Amino acid sequence: MSISQVFLDKENLRSRLFGEVWRNLIPAVFRDVPTYYDRGNAVASLGTCSPWSRKFAATIGARMRPGSKVLDVCSGTHDVALRLLDIDPSLDVHAVDGSPHMIREGQRRAQVRGLTINAQVCDAHKLPFADGSFDVVTLQFASRHLEIVRAFREIHRVLKPGGIFCHNDMLRPSSRIIEIPYLVYLRFSVWFTAKLFGSSAESLKCVGYFANAIHHFYTPREMSDLLREVGFVDTENRSFLSGIMSYHISRKPQA
Ligand SMILES: C[S@@+](CC[C@H](N)C(=O)[O-])C[C@H]1O[C@@H](n2cnc3c(N)ncnc32)[C@H](O)[C@@H]1O
Fold first, then answer.
1. Is the pLDDT of residue 48 over 90?
2. What is the number of the ligand 1 atom nearest to the C-alpha of 53?
3. Superfamily of domain covering 5-251
4. What's the Cα-to-Cα distance from 29 to each of 40, 98, 160, 187, 206, rounded to whole Å?
5. What is the pTM of this model?
C-alpha cells in the first residue's frame, strides 16, 4: 500500500527531530523505569491511564476467540498482555519489547500470577515472526517512540488475514484549546514524576521530548487515515478529551 506524501513528510520530520532520542535516550529511560512504571503513569496521568487501559483491554477481549494467538508489541511490563490473560486465560500470548529490564519486570508479574507470556527482546520495527502468525496484535503507549509506518507495516505483516490490530496511545489532541494547556501540563508532570521517583539523568533529559513527541504526533483522525493507508480496514476509534488518550481497533482484510 502506498503512503501519502503528507504522512511521509511527517514521518521524516519525526525521525529527524527524535531519531537520536529514540536510539540513545529511550533505552536508557526504560532501564530505570520498570519498578515504578505504574505509579509514575498514575501520577503523570492524574489516574486516568489505568482505567483507559482497562477499557481498551475489555474492548479487545470482546472481539477475541478462546485460544487466540496474541502479540503485544512494546509490551514493557506486560500491562496489556496481563489484562488480556485476566479476561481469557486460554489465550496464547507473546510479547516483545526493546528493553530487557521492562520485560524482566513483566515476566516477574506474570509469574506471580501463575500466567505464561512468551517474551523476547527485539526492535518493534523488525518483528521476529513469520507472516500471518497472529490473530491479534496490540501496541499500547509506545508508538510515539517509533517510526510508525515501518512499525505498522511489520504488525500488518505478522497478522493473519482477518486478524485485528489494537492500538492505544496518547495522541495529539485534535482541539488546540485542549492541546496547548495539555502540553504545558505534560512538561510539568513528566518533570515532577521524574523528580518524585528519583529518575535517571536520561529521563530528566526527556522532559521536553515527551511533550514535543505528542505535538508532532497524529490526531485520532490522522491515526485512522494512517491505518487505512498501511492497509487496515474497518477501523473503530474511541478517544478521551479529543485524543489525550485514544484507541483504534483495525482489521487486516481477508486475503
Ligand atoms: C511507555 S512503555 C509502554 C509499555 C506497555 N505497552 C504499557 O502499555 O505499559 C513504552 C515501551 O516501548 C518500548 N520501546 C520503545 N521503543 C521501542 C522499539 N523501537 N522497539 C521495541 N520496544 C520499544 C520501551 O522499551 C517501553 O517498554
1. no
2. 8
3. Vaccinia Virus protein VP39 (3.40.50.150)
4. 13, 12, 33, 16, 8
5. 0.96
